[in-house]
Model the fold of this input.
Amino acid sequence: MDQTAAGLVISVALNNTDCLYRQQNGDNCQMKIIVSGGGTGGHIYPALTIADTIKKLYPDAEIRFVGTTHGLEKDLVPRAGYPIDFIDVQGFKRSLSADTFRSVYKLFTGLGDAKKLLDTHKPDLVIGTGGYVCGPIVFLAAIKGIPACVQEQNALPGVTNKILSYFVKTIFLGYKEADKYFKGKAQKIFTGNPIREEILSHTRWEALRFFQLDVQKKTILITGGSLGAASLNKAAFQLEKELSGRDDVQVLHATGKNHYEAYKKQIEEAGGFQSNIRVSPYLYDMPMALAAADLAVFRAGAIGLAELTARGIPSILVPFPYATANHQEFNARALEAAGAALVILDRELNGDILQEKVERLLQHDEELRQMRLAAGRAGRPEAAVDIAKQAVALINTKKR
Ligand SMILES: CC(=O)N[C@H]1[C@@H](OP(=O)(O)OP(=O)(O)OC[C@H]2O[C@@H](n3ccc(=O)[nH]c3=O)[C@H](O)[C@@H]2O)O[C@H](CO)[C@@H](O)[C@@H]1O
Done:
């Protein structure tokens, strides 16, 4: 089906949804949606992006979140202006231990809490974005015949989403590579990962002006994810020492808050860097930093990579080796196979290797250009809208 036809199908489905609601519930009716995902930012940010996109498309939609009090969602969701209910559930460790019994017990308390929430709020749709917290509520909704779907961010899916694939109607895939791991009956739709709207809202010129960077130089963006990465910082230090004062390149580097003081001290001991090297603890202006970047040196978290590809930025990726089941390497390898990234494994990373790869790309414009084009092809800037529309259209399938 070409894109226009697909767009038509979606819009017809949405009109039906609207009609159904108006007919059955009158004009005051609001779609009620529960979104659940948590633990790390990697599950919460996509959940918030999907919620924001639904609100933008359907301003009357009533959206609430379900999370646990142990996860970051406790802070991030209220801050984003959504109500959140908490359920008492705990993840399973990969190995058997005394804690396993506690997790089983908590699974039942979680299911009990989820049942109460479904009975109280009577949602028309439940969306899960991964993390064990979304297990009970998405599972129970599906069992009760409430349309339910999940969004999987990684190329190697998480356990909760794999189990849920046997019960939900649809799985929205961040990576095509994840398809083969879902054995359940759910329909699998490759949409890419949802990214916040601001990621695409700045031009290169605006960003260079914002950071007072030089328009003649190539900009390298270096970050080890939201917490930073010691191994990446170590290799970056050698690279930045070599690039300091160069007239063809400039660097924006976020070390991670916990690593910043030590890094600053290291720079001082080395006699300081020139102004083409900018080091900060954290980049609050990531959308601007991405707009300025010609090349990125990154970990391989799914949302960071979706942001890079949405902007068509070539990258050198160093997957975090301790991520669950090494899923970051799967994310990174998918981009490498697409021709959009070079991969250095954390155990092989050192200043020489990073410098060699960076210099190669800086000296070979054509290789960088090809990688930029490949990154652009891999990008799915429309993912959030696709997911929001197709998830809401599932309401039509509700048994009434
Ligand atoms: C350690 C770990 O297991 N991380 C997982 C976590 O991602 P995690 O949250 O670690 O990383 P992601 O790349 O998915 O997201 C990072 C987010 O932080 C932002 N940012 C980062 C640095 C900075 O200085 N400023 C800033 O704003 C990025 O723009 C991005 O929006 O969930 C992802 C999705 O399930 C997984 O793919 C990751 O493997």
About this structure: The chain is about 45% helix and 15% strand. The pocket of uridine-diphosphate-N-acetylglucosamine is lined by residues 40-43, 45, 130, 153-154, 223, 225-226, 254, 282-283, 286, 301-304, 307, 320, 323, 327-328, 331 (CB under 6 Å).
